[in-house]
Every structure is written in C-alpha cells, then in structure tokens.
Design goal:
- The structure is a single chain.
- The protein is α+β, with helices and mostly antiparallel strands.
- It has one domain: Glutaredoxin (3-Layer(aba) Sandwich), CATH 3.40.30.10.
- It contains ten helices and four strands.
- The chain has a four-stranded mixed β-sheet with strand order 2-1-3-4.
- A hairpin with a 4-residue loop joins strand 3 and strand 4.
- Helix 2 packs parallel to helix 10 and helix 5 packs antiparallel against helix 6.
- The longest helix has 18 residues.
- The two termini are 17 Å apart.
Length: 199
C-alpha cells in the first residue's frame, strides 16, 4: 500500500484549488495520507523561494491570471484578493495536527474547509471561531482548537525541517514512499498515474 506525505500551507491558494482530488486519488489506489501543514514563508526563505508580494510584477500578474484559470478548471469559487490574506497560519495548522493525532473525523474535509474559508468565504483562519467551525464540519471535536497547541507547535516546527530535508520547496507538495515527489495541484494527474504504475 502506497503512502503519501502531503506538505501544504493553510493559506496556499493552490492547495485550495486541489480540492479533494488527493483524497479521491488515494482512495482509488488504497494509499494512505499523512497531512503535514507547514509555514510556507519560512520554507521559501530556506529553499530560495520568494513570497508572492515580493515577486516581480510580471510574476504577480501571471499568478493572478493563472489562479483564476485554475479555479475555473476546478469549478471552485475563488476570491483572488481574500479579506484575510495573509494571516497567521499557525493556529489552523495546529488544529489540523491535533485532529490528525486525535482521529475520528475527515482530515481531507478539514483541510479543505480551512482553505475554503480563506479563498472562498473571506474568513480569517487565525480566529478560533473559524477553526472550531471547520473542525466541527469535518467531524472533529472543536475543542482541538485549544487542546493541541503545544504538540501542534512542536510538530509544525519539525515538519518544516523535514520538508527541507526531503526536497520540498513549495505547496502543495506530495511525497510518495516510492521516492517520487510531485509539486503543485496541477501534478495530481501525474501522482494518480504514478500510483497506477504508469509513471
């Protein structure tokens, strides 16, 4: 059975545009997923990336067009300039880590609810009430928003180090236990093909 380590950021528009395709692909191939939220800005700093707001205007203009195109292709509602972006990624990331440790809910649904909150609903995912609502929607105890802070913080820091060590430089990033890695939601078809033994 294949395993996928899924590195992503709770503010990443491209992670949002992946929708639930990762979960659908994993289910089709009997693969398991470990969700690994990380600090994407810190990852950029350590791997030679540039935060979106600091990129050349040409790159920013292309990104704006591409995000809208990708949202249409994915048939997902999308706000190019969300009201609460950027915001603190840590609280929502800690909640995902706590939920994964606790079990009992749908992690893919939780991640998508958090990302949807940013990119389609103009909500601030640094706020406890938003995180609690996402936890509840995905079948988790909303109290995990408070109880998982210490372990969440420790895991979040370790995940950044792990990501750098494993060649991760962006989000979403899918690392299969076969050694193959895939960057971006537009590589999910390649991940699917790899798990099917075609790539």
């Amino acid at each position: 059975m294949a395993h996928i380590d899924y590195f992503f950021a709770t503010l990443s528009p491209y992670a949002y545009l992946a929708g639930t395709r990762l979960e659908e692909i994993a289910a089709r191939h009997g693969a398991t997923i470990t969700y690994k939220p990380l600090d994407i800005l810190a990852l950029f700093a350590r791997t030679g990336g540039t935060p979106p707001g600091e990129r050349h205007p040409n790159r920013q203009a292309y990104r704006a067009q591409e995000l809208i195109r990708q949202a249409k292709k994915a048939d997902l509602p999308f706000n190019l300039k969300p009201a609460h972006w950027p915001t603190n990624m840590a609280p929502s990331s800690y909640a995902i880590i706590a939920a994964q440790n606790a079990g009992g809910g749908d992690l893919g649904r939780l991640c998508h609810a958090i990302l949807r909150s940013v990119w389609a609903e103009d909500k601030d995912v640094a706020q406890d009430d938003v995180i609690r609502a996402c936890l509840s929607e995905a079948g988790f105890d909303p109290g995990l928003a408070d109880s998982g802070l210490l372990i969440g913080a420790e895991t979040y820091a370790r995940t950044l180090d792990e990501a750098v060590d494993r060649g991760v430089f962006g989000a979403p990033f899918y690392a299969v236990d076969s050694g193959q890695v895939f960057w971006g939601q537009d590589r999910l078809d390649d991940l699917d093909a790899h798990l099917a033994g075609k790539l």
